[in-house]
Please model this.
Amino acid sequence: MTRYILGRTAALIFVMLAASAIVFVLMNNIPGGPFSLGERGYSPDALANLERKYGLDKPLLERYVNFVVGAVQFDFGYSTAVAGSPPVIDVILRTWPVTLQVGVYTIVLAFGLGLVMGTFAAYHRNSPLDNFITFTATLGIVLPNFIIATFLLFIFGFQNGWGEPNKIIIGPLTPGGMPVLGWDYFLPVITYALAPMALVARYTRAAVSEALGADYLRTARAKGLTDRTIMVRHVFRNAMIPLLTVLLPQIPNLLTGSLFIEVVYGIPGLGKFFVTSILNRDYPMTMALILLIAFFWGLTYLITDILYMVVDPRVRLTSSRAR
Amino acid sequence: MLRKSAFVLFCLSALIWALLLVPALSAQGGNVDVYGRELPADAASYDMQVWTQLCDSTRTETSFMSAVTVYQRICGDTHMFDKLGDSLVDLDENLDLIPGAAESWEPSEDGLSWTFHLRPGQVWTDGTPLTAADYVATFRYMADPDHAYDFVWMWQGIIKGWSEAVAGEITPEEIGMEAVDDLTLIIHTEGARPYLPGTVYFWPPLQAKALAEIGPNYVLDPATSVSSGPFVLKEFAAGDHLYLEANPAYAGYRKPFLRELRGIYGDQLNGSFLAFQNGDVDRVNYVHISPADFEVIAADEVLRSHYLPNFGDFRTDYLFFDTYTAPFDSLQVRQAFAKALDRESIVSNIIGEQFGIPAYSFLAPGFPASDTEGALRDIQAYDCPAAQALLAEAGYPNGEGFPAVELKLRGESDARANWFIASAASISECLGVEITVNNMQFSEFMEGILARPTTIQFGAVSYGMDYLDPSNMLGVWVSTGRHSWRNAEFDQLVTDAGVLVGDPEGRTQMYKDAERLLVEDVGGVFLVHRIQGDLFQPYIAGNCLRPDRQGVSALHWGNDWCWGSFYITNEVANFDTYRSR
Model:
């Protein structure tokens, strides 16, 4: 197990290096750049000054090596697109907690409600309740979140002033910290949660339905186990494996935010930088986020594999060398 | 005993009278601003004097001072920037120069320098006097190669030594900026530059002391930010909100009635009108109002009457070519394209006559040296048979053999992209040539247009003024400008007119002649002069919205003194706005 985790961790580091190298080369070779924003463009002198200022005058390989050396120390350089050109790590540390908070609430809502809905639907297969849940889940999947957001804004009013004192429900736990919950969170979380909730509900329904029809349940009932024991020990446990495969990878998406949700609701989070840093050619920010997302996805798959083993003892994890 | 009771009675009655009179007196004279001025009679209470606009969550933003950046200003479309200081001069609603931080200015006898006299008594919020040295430090900072300023072109060839300083050949201390004393600033120019005062109107100063001790980002943190302007930084959280509040120490020419300016970040492009309808913002610029929103405005009497059109920055949208390579190296091909563009139909059916007027030349009507007589109108006017004949003469009868071309756009909104899709359709239909439209990313487009050789064979773009002089607008068409079009005579006229002093009529004529060359040689195919505008809430008022010489009431481009004039009227009580929630 330890060897397996070490092997996967080494592979993750390689993936991060490869992803960063590919993005670095692509980013520096597509047309346009961080200083192609003005009406008239820069004079050659001014452009040379800018490139020198941000270290873009150095050869590509040297810049990449500098980036890797800096990244190991969590120094990703300075943003070219955020007010005051702050260190990228400062921007991430300032904005990610907001995104994380919205993401955690979204996960709780989407997974909590989705699991309950899916289980009920499976338990009452082909009943009106099942039909209603299936219809709702389908609607959640097919309706794009920009439609949902627009309707919510029309109905409940425009949102701005994120975190204003009059909108806080549960204040910060530490002085100067972020509010725990505010009215501002409701619409973004509902908008953000609908699609994953629908997905969770549909997959849960399918997995639980399959488990409910399995032969071992008949045996379990014959042994005199209670319904609750059967559900927890047998149905849920067996239904978990396909659910883990499909649903856990949703989590990195939700915890790294969404451009659309953050822009529409004016959330000062990290999610929008995944798109705007590329559009604005903020190279240091883009590179930092690539590493972040590569790390997050690699970690998620590692955790998923470990959870397989916990849920299903038949699964044995081995590193390639051990095999 | 009696005396004691009388004393207690007196005290009690005095207290009652005080309780009754104080609120009454304070209500009578209480609606005053931080300068102790009485607000206009129809103004809402001072605590309601707050102004909010929506800022764009997706923009690159680095500072709210133009001296630090122009293209990356914080809340760039909202006029929230440059409120922490005053420019030397300002513009009124007629685009005439008015005193700003400088109360007067005059050229030297030889025309090679301009002297600005600052108003006495202006101070920074830390008590330091505002002096000419602050302006000198600001301009030196802008010219400093280590700063890598994004607008250095503005004074290249204008301020003495500027280009050399930007190139690192001399130090920024050697540029032609001189503080003679605390209140006297001299700007030395490369030659006679009659239009120089117009170029210094949107550069409020940075404080020399803070710039030296902390650097240009001192403005971003309320703890270090100092202001000599009408507002002072109260709170700033990048990507979340920006609050400015009236500066009580301000001694300039535009003391604000507004207590606070607020910028809230969100979906500026798609959310502005929604926020406006919800009473969350007080002004929306026309670029953030969609065609569907405009239909709502047109159908609503109140909204319609508070949408105030203006000339903006005299922006013209046009098509351009790479004239250095085939097929657009042929004048006849360019003329054919110009005459195949049915701009009147596009303006009336696609753009809307309230948002633009057909353009037959580059300088919009009203701009100095523009073709107000219509003398250039026929040169590029729509004439499909003539266009077809020109294309046939160029060797492409009925468009046969003409290569398929791509019209590249600069990251336009869907609504504006439709203007150019219609333009491509008009030309294609008339000439029988194949034109596809590619709406590129902004930075990719700009890199392509500026590259030599350019990577944009056929494109569409707009341009608006930076200062009110033809040298600015026509400057983009000189051969060292942004287009791959060269006309030696045009270059010469624009260069010569730029330094001509003492003959304003002759100078104007030179620019008119230059523009004629541009139109005849088809450097560009001109589509529309934009009519811009702002939607204001009905409870916004201000003396600055008075009619200009043409009778137009609007927030005019460059009219920055307006921010000392705006106020919220007591009509706000009839609306559900963020103030009352």
Remarks:
- The beta strands of chain A are 168-170, 181-182.
